[in-house]
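Propose amino acids for all 952 sites.
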C-alpha cells in the first residue's frame, strides 16, 4: 500500500472506530433511558395544517419533519399531526407538500409538555410575494450544499438535470443541448481529472444511487487507453448521462458540494440528491421548444381515497437535433414514472417504477459518400425503488429508514462505416500463442518439415488474413446492466443536559453486473485498427462472463448540537468502511459550525475523506490482443492465388491490475455566513486533493518485448503453398493500457453567495453568486516515447520523468441576478449578468526534453539514460521536437453574458415562460496566443426557448 494511502486509511480507521465507540455507548443506554423517557422527559408536538387563505381546508398527507433529530410524520385527512417522544429544546420544523411552498419554523419544546403548532401552507406559484428562482443555501445536513426548487426549475425551463448546474456558485450559462452526453463536475474546471470528478459524483434519486459501474459500452479501452462511448451515451469512465433524467417529475434537487454525511458513499466529488414528486397534483401538461429541441411532458398526482394513499404518474418525450442543418443526427428521450406513497401506521413509504428510453442516432449523411458513417446508442432502463421511514420512537431509537432499489438497463451501441486505408494483419484467434494461416485447417511447415502453425482445437475453422485497403465494417455492443442497492439506517436521538445527540448507524449493499452479449461483429470484417498501437487488434468480448461487482458498506455518525445562551455549536463526526472485491477503504467525515455572533455571524468548517470503488471497467478490463505477420504474399500479382500464403501469430496479455486501490479524495473547507436584516453573505473556501484517481495508462509492465521471426519462401512447388525458411529475428515492443491510480488533482478556491433580499419599493430581489476556482490535474505516471527507428524494426522506449506535465485552469466567475415579480398578475422576470473576470488555462512542464531512463530493445530491462548519448544513433531517433509555445498562458479577457427569463401565469391554470441566453449576442473574438492568427469566439451563441404549462 502506498504510504499516503496507508496514512489516510489509518486516519479513517481511527475516526470510524471513534464513531462506533460513541454510538455503542449511546445505544447501551437505550433500554434504561426508555424508562426515563416514559416518565416524562420527552416532548410532544401536535397541530393542524390548513391551506392559506381558508379557514378550515386541511392539507392532507403533508410531511412534518422535526430537525435536528429527524423525526417525521404526516397529517391525516383533517390536516392534523401528532409527533411524540421528541427531545426537548429548540427544534426546526419543516412542512412539505407537493405543489406547495415549504414552510420552516423554529419552536422550543419542553420536557413532559405538549406544544401546539398550527400553520398555513400556500400553493407554489409565481403569484407569491417572494419566489425561489435561484439556488438556495441548503438547510438540511451539515455539508455545504445548494437546493434548487421546483419553482426555480420551471423558471429556468430545464430539460435535463445538467441544466441546473448554472445556478450553483461558479456555474456558467450553457445553452440546453441534448445532442451529446452530459455529466456533472463539482468544483472542477476540467483537465485530466474531469472524467474522474464526474465518476466520483453520486446521483441519488429517492435515496438510491443511479449506477454507471457496469457500463462497458466501449470498443478497445485497453488498447486506446480511453473508454469513449460508442454511438453516444455516457462513457464507462465517467458519471451517468444526465440527459436521461428529466426534471419534470422532480420536486427538488440538492447538490452537496462540501463534505457529505457518511451515509452517502461511493463518491469522491459530491452528491446530487433528487426528490421525486409524490402526492396530489393537478393534471399538468408542459410543452417546451427551442431551436434544437422540443419536449412535451404530462404529470398527475391523485389521492386514491380513504387510507389508500396517493398515486403520482408522469411522463415526457424530447427530441433534439445536433444542428438544424444536420437533421440526420438527433437524440430522443422518453420517460415514464409511477410513484405510490402512503402511510401504514408508523411506516411512511414511497414505491416507484421508472421507464427511461434514451436514443442517440446518427444516420448516414446523404452527402457523405466516402465513409457512409452511421452510429447509434440506445438505452432502455427499468428502475424500481421503494423507501420508507418507520417511526419507532422507543427509547433513543427515533426511526429506521430503508431503501431498496433495482435497475435493468438494456443498451445497444453500433458503428458502421466504409473503412479506408485499412491495411492490417488480423487473426480470428482468441488463444495466446496461436499461429494460423490464411486458410482454415491449413498447416504450414518449414523446410525441415517442422510445423510452424499452432491451431487450437477449438479454432480449427479460424484463419488469419491481411485486411484489404477498403471494406465495409459494422460492430455492435450489447450491454445488459443490472444494479441492486439496499440500505438500512437507524436514527437515534437523545438530549443529555444541554447537548442534543443524533446518532446514525447504517449499512448498504450494492451489486453491479453486466449480462450482455458484449462486442459482436463479423470476424471477416472487424472494426478499424487502432493506429496508435502497432500490431494491436480487436476481439469480441462477452460481458456476461465478467463477474458482478459487489460492495458492502458500514457507517456510523454522531451529530451533536450544544446550545448555550443564544449560541449553537454543531458537530458532525462519522466513519465509513467500504469493501469491494479484495479492496477496502476506511474514511471519515467531519463538519462543524459555531454561532460567533448569534443571529448574525456563523463560522463553519469541514474535513473528510471520500472514496469511490473501481467500476467493472477497471476491475475486469479486457485482454490486449496483438497479431504478427511472419510471412505474407496475399494479393501479390506475381504469386498465383493457390500459392499465396499468410502466416500470423497471436499474443494476448492480461491487463488486470491486482494492485489497484480505491480512489480517495481529501476535501477540506472553511467558511462563514453573515446575516444582517434581510441580507445574507456567505463565503466558503475549499481545497480538494486526489492522489489516486482511476485511469487507463501505461507503465514499465505494459511494454512487452516480443521475439518476432520473419520467414521467406524456402521450398516451392507449383499449385501449393511454399515451405518456409528462416529470414530474420528481431525484438519488438508492444504496449497496452491497464487500470491505474495515476490521476492526481488539486481543486481550490472560494465560493460566494450574496442574497440582498427583496426591495419592496422595486418589487425586486437581488442575488449574487460566484466562485474563484483553480484546478490542477496531471497523470502521475511516467510518459513514454516509442518513436520508430527508421533503420530497424527494433527500437528503445524512452522514459520521461513522472508527472512531466500538468494542466492548469483558473477562473473567476460572478453572476448577478435581479428578479422582479408582480404577485398580483403572476409575473416574474429575472435578468442576469454573468462575467468571467479571470479565464486562464495553461500547462506546466517538468523535464520533457530529456529521458530519465529507457527500456532496452535488447532485453526489455529499464536502464538509466545518459544524457551525453542524446546524439548517439542508438537513441537519437527517440527524441522529437517540442513546441516552444507550450509554455504560453492563454488568458482570455473578461466577457459578459446577459440572460433573461420571464414567467407569466395566465389565469389560475396556465403559465407561459420565455428565456433568452446571451440576449445581446455578445461574442467578441479572442486571438489565441498559442496559435497566432487563429481566433476563438467567446461566450455562447444567442439562444432562446419557450414553455407553456397548463393545469387541468
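Proposal:
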Amino acid at each position: 500500500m502506498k504510504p499516503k494511502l496507508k496514512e489516510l486509511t489509518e486516519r479513517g480507521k481511527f475516526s470510524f472506530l471513534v464513531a462506533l465507540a460513541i454510538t455503542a455507548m449511546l445505544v447501551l443506554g437505550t433500554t434504561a433511558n426508555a424508562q426515563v423517557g416514559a416518565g416524562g422527559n420527552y416532548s410532544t408536538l401536535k397541530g393542524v395544517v390548513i391551506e392559506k387563505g381558508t379557514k378550515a381546508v386541511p392539507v392532507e398527507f403533508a410531511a412534518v419533519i422535526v430537525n435536528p433529530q429527524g423525526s417525521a410524520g404526516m397529517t391525516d385527512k383533517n390536516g392534523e399531526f401528532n409527533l411524540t417522544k421528541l427531545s426537548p429544546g429548540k427544534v426546526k420544523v419543516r412542512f412539505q407538500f407537493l405543489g406547495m411552498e415549504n414552510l420552516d419554523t423554529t419552536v422550543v419544546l419542553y420536557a413532559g409538555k405538549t406544544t401546539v403548532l398550527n400553520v398555513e401552507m400556500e400553493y407554489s406559484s409565481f403569484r407569491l410575494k417572494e419566489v425561489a428562482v435561484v439556488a438556495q443555501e441548503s438547510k438540511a445536513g451539515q455539508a455545504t450544499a445548494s437546493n434548487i426548487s421546483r419553482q426555480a426549475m420551471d423558471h429556468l425551463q430545464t430539460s435535463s438535470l445538467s441544466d441546473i448546474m448554472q445556478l450553483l456558485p461558479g456555474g456558467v450559462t450553457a445553452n440546453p443541448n441534448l445532442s451529446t452526453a452530459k455529466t456533472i463536475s463539482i468544483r472542477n474546471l476540467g483537465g485530466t481529472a474531469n472524467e474522474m470528478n464526474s465518476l466520483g459524483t453520486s446521483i441519488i434519486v429517492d435515496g438510491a444511487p443511479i449506477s454507471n459501474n457496469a457500463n462497458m459500452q466501449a470498443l478497445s479501452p485497453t488498447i486506446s487507453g480511453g473508454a469513449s462511448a460508442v454511438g453516444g451515451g455516457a462513457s464507462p469512465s465517467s458519471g451517468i448521462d444526465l440527459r436521461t433524467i428529466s426534471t419534470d417529475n422532480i420536486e427538488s434537487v440538492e447538490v452537496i458540494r462540501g463534505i457529505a454525511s457518511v451515509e452517502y458513499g461511493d463518491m469522491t466529488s459530491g452528491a446530487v440528491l433528487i426528490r421525486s414528486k409524490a402526492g396530489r397534483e393537478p393534471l399538468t401538461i408542459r410543452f417546451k421548444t427551442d431551436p434544437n429541441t422540443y419536449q412535451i411532458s404530462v404529470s398527475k398526482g391523485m389521492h386514491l381515497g380513504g387510507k389508500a394513499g396517493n398515486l403520482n404518474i408522469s411522463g415526457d418525450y424530447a427530441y433534439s437535433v445536433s444542428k438544424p442543418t444536420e437533421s440526420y443526427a438527433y437524440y430522443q428521450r422518453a420517460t415514464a414514472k409511477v410513484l405510490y406513497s402512503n402511510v401504514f401506521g408508523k411506516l411512511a413509504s414511497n414505491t416507484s417504477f421508472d421507464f427511461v428510453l434514451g436514443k442517440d442516432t446518427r444516420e448516414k449523411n446523404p452527402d457523405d459518400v466516402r465513409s457512409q458513417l452511421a452510429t447509434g446508442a440506445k438505452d432502455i432502463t427499468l428502475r424500481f425503488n421503494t423507501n420508507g421511514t418507520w417511526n419507532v420512537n422507543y427509547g433513543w431509537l427515533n426511526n429506521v429508514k430503508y431503501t431498496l432499489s433495482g435497475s435493468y438497463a438494456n443498451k445497444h451501441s453500433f458503428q458502421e462505416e466504409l473503412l479506408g486505408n485499412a491495411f492490417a494483419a488480423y487473426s480470428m484467434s482468441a488463444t495466446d500463442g496461436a499461429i494460423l494461416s490464411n486458410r482454415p485447417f491449413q498447416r504450414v511447415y518449414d523446410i525441415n518439415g517442422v510445423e510452424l502453425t499452432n491451431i487450437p482445437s477449438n479454432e480449427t475453422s479460424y484463419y488469419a488474413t491481411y485486411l484489404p485497403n477498403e471494406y465495409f465494417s459494422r460492430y455492435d455492443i450489447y450491454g445488459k446492466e443490472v444494479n441492486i442497492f439496499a440500505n438500512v439506517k437507524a436514527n437515534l436521538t437523545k438530549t443529555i443536559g444541554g447537548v442534543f445527540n443524533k446518532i446514525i448507524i447504517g449499512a448498504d449493499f450494492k451489486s453491479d453486473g453486466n449480462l450482455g452479449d458484449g462486442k459482436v461483429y463479423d470476424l471477416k470484417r472487424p472494426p478499424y485498427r487502432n493506429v496508435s498501437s502497432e500490431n494491436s487488434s480487436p476481439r469480441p468480448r462477452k460481458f456476461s462472463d465478467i463477474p458482478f461487482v459487489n460492495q458492502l458498506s458500514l457507517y456510523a455518525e454522531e451529530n451533536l448540537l450544544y446550545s448555550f445562551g443564544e449560541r449553537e455549536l454543531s458537530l458532525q463526526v462519522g466513519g465509513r468502511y467500504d469493501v469491494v472485491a479484495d479492496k477496502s477503504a476506511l474514511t471519515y467525515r467531519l463538519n462543524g459550525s459555531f454561532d460567533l455572533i448569534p443571529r448574525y455571524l456563523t463560522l463553519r468548517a469541514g474535513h473528510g475523506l471520500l472514496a469511490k470503488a473501481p467500476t467493472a471497467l477497471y476491475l475486469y478490463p479486457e485482454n490486449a490482443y496483438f497479431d504478427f505477420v511472419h510471412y505474407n504474399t496475399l494479393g501479390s500479382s506475381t504469386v498465383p492465388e493457390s500459392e499465396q500464403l499468410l502466416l500470423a501469430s497471436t499474443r494476448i496479455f492480461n491487463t488486470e491490475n491486482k494492485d489497484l486501490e480505491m480512489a480517495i479524495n481529501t476535501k477540506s473547507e472553511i467558511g462563514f455566513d453573515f446575516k444582517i436584516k434581510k441580507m445574507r453573505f456567505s463565503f466558503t473556501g475549499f481545497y480538494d486533493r486526489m492522489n489516486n484517481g482511476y485511469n487507463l495508462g501505461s507503465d514499465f509492465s505494459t511494454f512487452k518485448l516480443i521475439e518476432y521471426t520473419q520467414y521467406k519462401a524456402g521450398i516451392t512447388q507449383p499449385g501449393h503453398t511454399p515451405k518456409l525458411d528462416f529470414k530474420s529475428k528481431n525484438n519488438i515492443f508492444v504496449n497496452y493500457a491497464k487500470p491505474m491510480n495515476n490521476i492526481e488533482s488539486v481543486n481550490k478556491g472560494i465560493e460566494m453567495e450574496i442574497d440582498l433580499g427583496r426591495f419592496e419599493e422595486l418589487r425586486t430581489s437581488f442575488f449574487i453568486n460566484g466562485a474563484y476556482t483553480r484546478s490542477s490535474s496531471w497523470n502521475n505516471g511516467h510518459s513514454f516515447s516509442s518513436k520508430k527507428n527508421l533503420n530497424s524494426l527494433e527500437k528503445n522506449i524512452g522514459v520521461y520523468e513522472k508527472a512531466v506535465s500538468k494542466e492548469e485552469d483558473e477562473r473567476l466567475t460572478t453572476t448577478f441576478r435581479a428578479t422582479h415579480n408582480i404577485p398580483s398578475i403572476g409575473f416574474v422576470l429575472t435578468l442576469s449578468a454573468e462575467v468571467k473576470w479571470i479565464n486562464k488555462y495553461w500547462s506546466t512542464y517538468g523535464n520533457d526534453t530529456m529521458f530519465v531512463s529507457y527500456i532496452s530493445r535488447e532485453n526489455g530491462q529499464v536502464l538509466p539514460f545518459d544524457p551525453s548519448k542524446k546524439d548517439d544513433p542508438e537513441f537519437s531517433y527517440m527524441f522529437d521536437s517540442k513546441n516552444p509555445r507550450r509554455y504560453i498562458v492563454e488568458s482570455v479577457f473578461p466577457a459578459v453574458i446577459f440572460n433573461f427569463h420571464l414567467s407569466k401565469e395566465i389565469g389560475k391554470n396556465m403559465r407561459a415562460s420565455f428565456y433568452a441566453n446571451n440576449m445581446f449576442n455578445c461574442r467578441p473574438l479572442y486571438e489565441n496566443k498559442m496559435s497566432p492568427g487563429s481566433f476563438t469566439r467567446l461566450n455562447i451563441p444567442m439562444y432562446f426557448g419557450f414553455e407553456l404549462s397548463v393545469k387541468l
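The helical segments are 3-28, 30-41, 150-156, 194-199, 221-224, 616-619. The domain at 4-137 is CATH 2.60.40.10 (Immunoglobulin-like).
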